[in-house]
Amino acid sequence: MTRIPEVERDIIEKAIYLPMVLIVLNRDLTVFKQSPFKLRKPYLELVEDAMKIIQKELYEVKRFLRKNQIQVKEIDRDDSFTMFSFLYKGYEEQHSYFNPRIRNKVQELMEHYLFKRFV
């Protein structure tokens, strides 16, 4: 059983997912820059704006973690699972995440930052 309240666990998980979203968007940005689009500027602006918002949110997440002395570390990764260590108020917990779940959550966040945040 976890000692970490749900609200703080959600913030901790953002510290895991948001950097991954930035990595994917950064790779996509490189592809857009190299692709032979006739009008590439709208695509670039869409991705760059999403990245700026994610970076601001990630800054706030990291600030919250520092302020509350919470640490998140990836400790192991294999084909199916990634294990993270959470240090929370003097307690260490290890949580294992199913890699397809991580991928689906990153995809969901990408959709949110690219499209659904306008709704």
TrEMBL record:
Q: Name one Pfam family in it.
A: YhjD
Q: Which InterPro entries match?
A: YhjD-like
For this entry, the protein name equals YhjD
